[in-house]
Amino acid sequence: MCADTPGNRVPRIAPLPEEQWDDVLKAVTAATGPLNVFTTLARHPSLFQSWIGLGSALLMNGLLSARDRELAILRTAHHRSCEYERAHHRGLALDAGLTEDEIAALRRDPDDHPWSDDDRMVLAAADELHERGTVTDATWTELSTRFGERELIELVMLIGHYHMVAFALNALRVQGEDAAPGAGEA
């Protein structure tokens, strides 16, 4: 269920069968469940180990608030047409205080929703990085009134990271767990 494929298309690379999981993947899935993003990318163990470290740092140990993080991620998922990323971050966004209405609004023009100034800054960064590959001076100046240099670096890295993840999910046609063979079976 990513950009160029209907949900019933076959993944280009299937998730790694459980009997082939290494200790790193076993530890990740023990914490998250056997998510297809992890079991697919783990087919490249050394890259997976490096990637999971960065992803974990951004997702669990970052300086940005959970709300800012999830706004940036969900806006990026929208821009990259990545339903997998959007579906998996919906619950995290709700836990971070976003409402269902706000989550839905992230798929529309920001002017169609009464976002706070703080939210608009994050959305502007995500939109500009998507459209231009950079952030305008005006947006950077505005962001700098709210975030220190470490948070600014993290915000840009977070958005870039989730663009990369969406590229991989879309190109590999990673399916949602409910679309996987045997999903829902007891």
From TrEMBL:
Which InterPro entries does the entry link to? AhpD-like (IPR029032), CMD-like (IPR003779)
Q: Please, which domain of life does this record's source organism belong to?
A: Bacteria
Organism equals: Actinomadura sediminis
Name the UniProt record assigns to this protein: Carboxymuconolactone decarboxylase family protein
Record-linked Pfam families: CMD
Question: Ranges for the Carboxymuconolactone decarboxylase-like domain?
Answer: 45-108
